[in-house]
Amino acid sequence: MGTLERLFELEAHDTDVRTELVAGLTTFLTMSYIVIVNPAILSAAISVENRTPGQTVQMLAVVTIISAAVATLIMAFYANRPFAQAPGLGLNAFFAFTVVLGLGVPWQTALSAVVVEGLLFILLTAVGAREYIIKLFPEPVKMAVGAGIGLFLAIIGLEAMHVVAADPATFLQFNPSFANDPIAIISVVGLFLTFALYAADVPGSIILGIVITTAISYAASALGITPIDPQIAEGVFLYTPASLTGQTAVVYSVAGYNITPLVGAFIEGFSNVDALGFSLIVFTFFFVDFFDTAGTLTGVGQIAGFLDEEGNLPDIDRPLMADAVGTTVGGIIGTSTVTTYIESATGVEEGGRTGLTALVVAVLFLASLALVPLAAAVPLHASHIALVVVAVLMLQNIVDIDWDDLSHAVPAGLTMFIMPFTYSISYGIAAGIIAYPIVKAAQGEASEVHPGQWVLAGAFVLYFFVRTSGLLGGAL
User: Fold this and answer.
1) How confident is the model at residue 450 (pLDDT cuts 50, 70, 90)?
2) 79 close to 318: Cβ distance less than 8 angstroms
3) Three-class SS string for the chain?
């Protein structure tokens, strides 16, 4: 315990080992769904010769865990921050459905783009460019990121809990079958139970809520009332080595799993690359990951009380480097872009303040290689209760915004609204950054806008054009 205290400076961060352990376990349980969801998404685009679909999913699960553990370990020991990392949702969908399936780009080439993106991040982080750009974010955007992420978390959580559902007319509605949906009822019971535990200052209230909801779900399943999440793929996490049939290359084996076909596949992807099309793919990966990570670090850092008086996260270059190295390693071994997870907010809310929280998350990811992981034990609706709880708590940050000044109110409001409505942190940040100089100029205060903020606004306009005009598809 003394070693952990010295290594992570627990006393200086007003925390202790128990708190950090609970925080790490909470974060892991909340984000562990990625071990199931990432392989499910990527396997739609990645097909490996001489491998069954099940073996491909198995390999993708392993590389998902490895990339998450590597990036989060760097976060723990190099950055000493309680942020967890893994292949990002949204980015993996762009990888699979837009780049590979939509544009017909070989999956190996898509991995090449991820590796190039990661190397660019390492270079830009090393010279301080990423930190400089993040400091250019307008103050109202920084102050609104936390609340925007909260609303984003709420949408994700309520959807997984079956409280809200899609609607062709209004796009979103209350679940019309709520009263007949056992998952929805169990989730809401678990949510209010978690709120009650939190309000009563019960230590580990969020994780207790997840565990109790999981137990209720299994009891209901045993009674035939409701099934456990069908995404838990049979055989994916069993401790049985993948077949080596047809393999002549060196065998990469982790916990008995052979991942040879994925490791280094990005090298093949560089052959016959179209320069313009490849550059646009790298640009898109780069842009989304850059601002998703920046927004998450700022928003979660605000909850933890890490931000300085100007709304900046001190030594942000360190967690940014963890993100950059994680992305590079992920691309090399066969998965999409690694990013910082907004679910880190759940661990921070439990009191996590140091890299020990991140270390616990990384160790649990590694443990899941050899054991049936907690990811397969906790239903999605149970783990996502934590997101709704944290979402409510994150809304308290809006009091820091000067709502009487339209140059603050407009960018802040757009930042918060656009995140949940477009299902993207980066889009919300983009809306706020574009709005800020425009409103400032309209108020006759253009001189107060930093030239770099105009450049950022222009860059986002360019990004939206590239992303939505069809230019990306036409170049390939």
Assistant:
1) very high
2) yes
3) CHHHHHHHCCHHHCCCHHHHHHHHHHHHHHHCCHHHHHHHHHCCCCCCCCCCHHHHHHHHHHHHHHHHHHHHHHHHHHHCCCCCEEECCCHHHHHHHHHHHHCCCCHHHHHHHHHHHHHHHHHHHHCCHHHHHHHCCCHHHHHHHHHHHHHHHHHHHHHHCCCEEEECCCEEEECCCHHHCHHHHHHHHHHHHHHHHHHCCCCCHHHHHHHHHHHHHHHHHHCCCCCCCCCCCCCCCCCCCCCCCCCCCCCCEECCEECCCCCCHHHHHCCCCCHHHHHHHHHHHHHHHHHHHHHHHHHHHHHHCCCCCCCCCCCCHHHHHHHHHHHHHHHHHCCCCEEECCCHHHHHHCCCCCHHHHHHHHHHHHHHHHCCCHHHHCCHHHHCHHHHHHHHHHHHHHHHCCCCCHHHHHHHHHHHHHHHHHCCHHHHHHHHHHHHHHHHHHCCCHHHCCHHHHHHHHHHHHHHHHHHCCHHHHCC
pLDDT at residue 252, as a whole number: 66
Using an 8 Å Cβ cutoff, are 449 and 441 in contact? Answer: yes
Cα distances (angstroms) measured from residue 300 to each of 55, 113, 140, 314, 351: 36, 28, 16, 13, 12
The one-letter amino acid code at 1 reads M
Which tens digit of pLDDT belongs to each residue from 169-190? 888 899 999 999 999 999 999 9
Total-model pTM: 0.74
State the residue for tokens 């928003």. 299
pLDDT of 244 reads 38
Q: How far apart are CA 322 and CA 202, in angstroms?
A: 33
Q: Per-residue confidence at 82, pLDDT binned at 50, 70, 90? A: very high
Place of tokens 């066969």: 334
Q: At residue 200, does pLDDT exceed 50?
A: yes
Q: Give 209's pLDDT tier (boundaries 50, 70, 90).
A: confident
- pLDDT per residue over 231-250, tens digit each? 443 333 333 344 434 444 45
- Residue 305 exposure: Cα atoms within 13 Å on the Cβ side: 7
Does the structure show a pLDDT above 80 at 452?
yes
